Amino acid sequence: MRHIQAVVFAVIIMGLCGGTLAHAAEGAKAPTKQQKIVAMMKAMNVMATIDAMMPQMTTGMVQAMRQNGTEVSPGLEEAIGNATSKVMRANIRPLLKAMVGLYDRNYSAQEIDDLVAFYQSPTGKKSLQIMPQLATQSSSIAVKWAQSLRPHLEAELDKVLAAKQGG
User: Fold this and answer.
1) pLDDT (0 to 100) of residue 167
2) Of 17, 95, 131, 142, whose CB has the highest number of CB atoms within 10 Å?
3) In this prediction, what percent of the chain has a pLDDT beyond 70?
């Protein structure tokens, strides 16, 4: 299944970048910057990251529905997940095109080459593997830190409000 997704991903991105698989396979010309970005995105396993987002989106939608008083059974939650996945996959092309444009605007061709080399290295592969956990843990750390600042922030804001109201 992952192999099929990778092939579909490559076909979509190559089409977005104006290249063809046959032309790329011939190697007649040096790869374009956009084709290098596609190689980088493949090395980054972007489709797996997108796939990993789907359960998180489902969880967020289900939580919002429950907060609004909607009863969500496990069967309904599964159906929501399937619908989310279906809609995201059917509409992936604009996202991938936007991502190619984002990297194109922010990195030179040499920097893209450097990123591809990094993400294909053992350290780059490890970074990609653990990045989701690091992001989750970093977010948790940041939330706890922000919560620890709350009393200090409230005290400072009380001073500011008192000064503004008194002056």
Assistant:
1) 61
2) 17
3) 83
